[in-house]
Each structure stands twice: as C-alpha cells, then as structure tokens.
Amino acid sequence: MAQFFKAKPNRSKQVSARMSLEITQLDHLGAGIAHHDGKIVFVPGALPGESVRGQLTEQKKRHARAKLQEIVRASQDRVTPKCAHYYQCGGCDLQHLAIDKQRSHKQDSLVSLMAKLGQAEAETIAPVLFGKEWDYRRRARLATFYDRNTKHTTLGFRAQASKQVINIEHCPVLAAPLSDLILPLSRVLNRLSSKKALGHVELIEASNGHFVVIRTTKSMSEKDTEKLREFSDSHKVNLIVQGNESDLTLICDDPHTLAIGSSELPYYELDNEIKLSFTPGNFVQVNAEINNAMVNQAVDWLSVETNERVLDLFCGVGNFSLPLAKKGAEVIGVEGVPEMVQQASINAKLNGVNNVSFFHTDLSADLSKASWLGKVDKLLLDPARAGAFESLQWLKKMKPKSIVYVSCDPASLARDSEYLLKHGYKLTKLGLIDMFPQTHHIEAMALFELS
Q1: 139-258 — its CATH code?
Q2: Ligand-binding site membership of 382 (annotated)
Q3: 42 among the known binding-site residues?
Q4: pLDDT tens digits, one per residue of 24-77
Q5: Which of the residues 286, 325, 408, 420 is marked catalytic?
Q6: Would residue 408 show up in a list of annotated catalytic residues for this protein?
Q7: Is 252 annotated as a binding residue?
Q8: C-alpha closest to that of 93 among 101, 105, 81
Q9: What sections of 55-181 are H helices per DSSP?
Q10: CATH 3.40.50.720 fits 11-78, yes or no
C-alpha cells in the first residue's frame, strides 16, 4: 500500500490556553522569567514580583515563551511608558521599568553573565556611565513601506521581530529636533511622485547641524527635488539623497555629491577639541553624551604614556584613536570598512594629529602578514556584537600589558574574557555603559592587565 507523507503539527509554535505565572526575575534581554511544568518561561513585558496571565507562544524542550495577556498584580517598579507607540514599535523594550531599576538590572546581568559564561570576576566594579534617559539618540534609521492599495508611504520603525513598519509620529528617545522632523518628513515624502522607490531614512544630529538622508532606488525628478529643497529650507536641515550607487547628493541651491572628507559631512566633537567627521551610513555611537564619557574613561583606564605603542582594533573613524594619540602615544588604528579608514586618516589630519596611522584589514581573517601586527604596549578593542575572538588569536604577537575592551554584547565579552584569563590576564575593572536607556541593550567596558 502506498504511503504518503503527512506533516506533523509544529508543537513548538502551538498556542496554549491562558495560564497564571509568577515572575521571579528578568533575563539579560529584559524578559520576565517564570516557571511552569518544570520549564523556564520567558514573558516579555513582565517584571519580577508580578503575577500575570499569559499564553504560551513557543515551546522547546527546556524552556518556553509566553505572550503577556494580563497583569494581575503589578510590581512597584512598573511605570507608564512615555511613548505612545511603545507596545507596537520594536525599538524600546524596557520603558515599563523605572530607569534606576533598568540600570541596576543591566549591571547585575553584566556581572552575572561574565561569571557564568566567562568565569570572570572583576576586582573592581566601576560606577555606571549614564546620562539622559530621554532625547539621547543623535541618529536613527527609519523604515518606509509603500502600500499599493492606498498609495500611501508609511514612515516609522519596525515592529518587534517583524518586517511590519509601524507609523511613528514622535520618538521620545530621539533628540527632540530629530523627533520633531518625523511627521513633517512623512508628509513631504508622500507628496513625491517617486515615493514607491523610497528606502530607509536616516536622521542625524551632528555638531554642524541636522541631517536627513533619504535612500531611493531611482533618480528623483526635478519636481521632487524641489519639494525636498523646500523642506530642507523650511526646517533648516541638510537633506541628502542616496541613490543606487551609494552616492550622497546634498539637496541645496547647488546640489553636489558628498565625497569622503567633504566639509559638508556631519561631524561630532569630543573633549580636547577633537572633531570627527563621518559619512551617513557609517557607524558612530548614537549617544553623544555617553560616547564622550566612554572615550574619556577608556583613555583613563589605559593610562597611556608618551612614546608607548597603542593598537586600536575596530577603530571606526578614530573615536578612540585620536584621543589616545593626543596623549602622546604612537597609535595604530585598524578597521574593516575601507571608507571609514579613509575618513579616520582625514580626521587625523584635520585635527593636526600626526602620531597615528590607520589600516584597512578584515579582523576576522588571517593577520599573520599584516604589516601593523607586532608588539604593543596597550590594546583597545571596540568590536561589533560578534566580539573580537578571531583578533585575540594573535595575542602572543601583540603582548599588550593592558587591554581595554569596549563591548556591545556581554555574551561575546564573557567568551573573550575567558580566553584572556587563560592567557595570563586578570580582569581589573568592569563597568556598565548605559548607552541605550529604555532598552535591554548592555554596553560594557572591561580592563584586563597582564598578571
């Protein structure tokens, strides 16, 4: 008899009946933790001490996830979210928790993850670096969605774990001048004949003004360009259009393409009168106040001396390299994005810093033939979420006395810390950097010294 395949039901995605759950703690991603039928249940939006009703949305062998349906007994630490879009937008996920509790939770999570995943315990826990809890983001990327039925383009942020674009009129974590641009910008975009060709929109607050960067997949007509020019003039912003070839065209009375090193590029300032220009789309820290404090702390922790050789890996446009060079050290900055390396070199010249050099290298590749690789006195690491594990395989060639590791992912920091401890380093200092208030994201700085 012929047999036919019959798909089994996906039990991991089956939705359960509502159930009562007691929340005991938060995980490092900000979700409440409960226990049910011998499993850990993660409940986003719930807080420790709360009794809630939820519905299982995903089940695995040892854990499950539940959607929060009702708060039966609320925590005294629960606050009303400030943002009207909070429960739809996927940008923030801790606005319902008081800010001081957010920071203490992040601090505890950082220390716990370092101990659990990296077997690393710091000799000193540094004070938390924190600043404004609202209006702190100096840049953001908004998505667009063109509805073919209504002929309307939605401008906003994506929903949590979804491609759906949520219409946003105001964002309280954005710098106020940027937030105030969202609604009028949405209106002018919907007046464009080429609105179906729009991609993302980037908002930037820089020391030399406010910038709006519009990504489009086809050339704009003169009529559309004129509408954007009027918007730029009336709102006193620098409006840039980025086409398919990644060219950046400044919309003004005399439109021209912005090149690396152009005086019209946005820049930000650090202490010691350091100015760092960057091209829209390239990485810079979104929180200006905390970035400046973070740079100062890194320079202080490394305690560089004149004529020391310092290596700055994942250097970007020179965020740490130039302040370190200002202390008199010979600094080598290495970055994987060639345009950022070029901009970093220009920034060094513009700031009159001659004791720094920059190199383009894939830091996850074989570095054995890299001309810059060799003995250094100090090492600074500022990698992406994946961490710096591949780069640390060349530790024997570098032999730094001190390492400052700036991390945006405590899990990869813990993994790399374990490697450093095994190679003769001790974790001297560890500190939380609250770069992203109202979210679960944890930035940290660690100081390792050769035993």
Answers
A1: 2.40.50.1070
A2: yes
A3: no
A4: 999 999 999 999 988 999 999 999 999 999 999 999 988 999 999 999 999 999
A5: 408
A6: yes
A7: no
A8: 81
A9: 99-118, 176-179
A10: no
